[in-house]
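Why does residue order matter? Because the sequence determines the fold. Keep that principle in mind as you read this record.
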Amino acid sequence: MNKIEHIGIAVNSLNKSVPLYELLLNTSCYKTELVASEQVNTAFFKTGENKVELLEATDEDSAIARFLEKKGEGIHHIAFAVDDILAEMERLKANGFVLLNETPKKGADNKMVCFVHPKQTNGVLIELCQEIKWV
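Structure:
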């Protein structure tokens, strides 16, 4: 794991939260994206080398909707950049970690992603992110 790629924050409303985070971080939202497979709308902010991703549920049965219902708004996950997501997934599985998806899937911001079950990471949902390289 090379660095923290972003911190994901679950919010009830991007319409309310984007202006708040623009003011808080003193920067504009540089990208919004619908990730239909995850039933989530995202908004990204960059401050220095760091990124923040806001996550808004698009369906009441989505993982983000369940998270918001159970825990309310707040930090949802920490994402780490990796060079080789398949190798990192194998390394983690070999060390006993449970992955929430067996193969990487397309996530937001041009990334392939995989999540590590939070029951084995002190309650923190960990996301692995690898940049999709277009040829």
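The radius of gyration is 15 Å.
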